[in-house]
UniProtKB/TrEMBL annotation:
Signal peptide coordinates: 1-18
Any Pfam family the entry gives: Por_Secre_tail
Matching InterPro entries: Secre_tail
Residue ranges constituting the Secretion system C-terminal sorting domain according to the UniProt record: 499-567
Keywords: Signal
Protein name per Swiss-Prot or TrEMBL: T9SS type A sorting domain-containing protein
Keyword Ribosomal protein: no
Domain of life: Bacteria
Amino acid sequence: MKKIYSFFLMFFGALSFAQTFYSENFGTPSGTTLITGYSGWQVGSPVTYSGSGDVRTTGASSGYAGASGSGNVFLTSTAGRNLIISNINSSAFNQADIQLSFGYLTSSVATQLVVETSTNGTTWTPITFTQNTTTTWNLVTVLGGQIPSSTTLSLRFTQPATASMRIDDVKLSSVSSSCTLVLGAATTTCSASTLALDTYSVSIPFSGAGNATYVITPTSGTVGGDNPTAVATGNIIISGITENTPYSVSITGGTCNFTTNGNSPECKPLNALTFQEPFNYTVGSSLGAQQTWSNLNSGDLITVESGNLTYGTLAGTGNSVSFSGAGIETFSPFTPTTSGTIYAGFMFSVTDLSNVTDGVDSYFAVLTDAAKNFKLRLFTKRVASQYQIGFDSAATTTNYDTTLRNIGDVVYVIMGYDFATNTVVNVWINPNLATFSSATPPTLTATTPAIADLGGFVLRQDGSTSTPTIKVDELKIGALAAEYNLSSATFSQIDGLKLYPNPTKNSLYIETAINSTIYVSIVDLLGKEVINTKVANNLVNVSNLTSGIYIVKITEEGKTATKKLIIN
């Protein structure tokens, strides 16, 4: 029977146990940075870092237990590129017990990474290890006997020829040969998935136990599951860890001392339709860190930036997001839909094409099924100093709108799928939102294999020479075309919204069904914001505005509405 058991405070000499005493995963660099200029190391002074390589997020580590992803050291194909880690203190451990491990990727299995140790920074001794047999990430483990016990241990990783190489997750541990306890790969499970921060649990399988008193100490959470003191095999469960908090668990007993750690899972919910996204998040934050989005891979982030786009009388609220070149794909799930229609509409603007190769196409916005398989794709293709917009279900296309668009143009697109027709997909580019309906002729159509369901939306960074700098604003995913018609009662997602008097001269009153916290932005017809305020007592002072027509953007609890305002 599984039960919760207490853990005890016990102290042991450092020489008695297997334990990790140095671990470096290279953090999360904002971009490619030389080792000598990087400050995001996980282990600081007195440990120092030098060498001729660089730190970057591309090619993130994966495929081995404990792969941290994100930052890694890259050694280009120039012979002699290296990483040097100095001033590691390994003196508390016997050389016979010191184990080195690191994630390793090479572009050529014929070229062997050179790994050396030194205790004075001058004399270097090579160590031996088994070369990768593939050009994918692998975890290299160097057993005890080759790493010195020293107060000034240095490690040097050198690319000796013309292959490019990557290094991640460098770890030094003291491993006792008499410890029989074996830990398996930990798994994490969310206790719930809501828009708030949830909790999760960690399950750590073990074997070789039942022969000592083991003490389990997590940095947070409650210990439960099987007790390795009492049983030989089972699963240790740590529950109640707050989402976004990494876990770390130490397990000691007999001659064993382990620390296992990892990152939090993403406990994020499905977004109910209609899903309206004004990107009202902190400027500079990662879109994938928000509770409505997740990152599908690693690389340069899609980030929130200040400012909005305006298309006709539709003006963005909150903030917007921007991305460019290669990097992360960010995914937002919504209620899986298998019948009727699905639409995804948003504003975007290409603000820079300088990095894109002329004639190269790339898709940046995608509707997916619930399993995250890409189904409908929106493309851009550079044509000299302008670009075209394409649409297809496939990963490449010749299905382009003939209109050439300029840097800075604001474009509104609606991607649509009708489960009744099942093999025809449509996109509307710059439709008239005052009259838009399902009967509006699409700008482009494409054929597709029948789609069983749609349940996600992706913003995608394809490549450094194919994805331009793009700003995206006011995403809306819904089941009805009327939700994209500005004159339709269904366009506003704020129940009971009233804005009066209109026309007005001095004061504007705003009421809703729930009268929660309301934010208002007012812009003129040139797109200049003239008021941005939190509404107090349902009243907005507009007495300083000159006579004319304005656009009022109202936001309440993540829902937005846009109204026209006339100032006398």
